[in-house]
Amino acid sequence: MPPRKSARKPKKATRPTINENNPSAQELDAIKRLLILQLITSGVQSTDIAKALGVSKSVVTGLVPARKVKKPPKKS
Fold this sequence. Notes:
45% of the residues lie in helices and 0% in strands. It is an all-alpha fold and 76 residues long. Helix 2 crosses helix 3. The longest helix has 19 residues, at 23-41.
């Protein structure tokens, strides 16, 4: 009898939760979001930001939804 294959799915990367009682952690999270927002508004793609941070694109778009951000017009 052949060995059974595992039916487990790989775990998804989840965003770490912030301790709501820790103001320093909340402030650092806000700074991180602002820096990512600045990168997105300057034209850097979410996939490139995710690669630099070592996370998936969904983590970056979860922090700052790029579709809701006004981007500068593309140069011709």
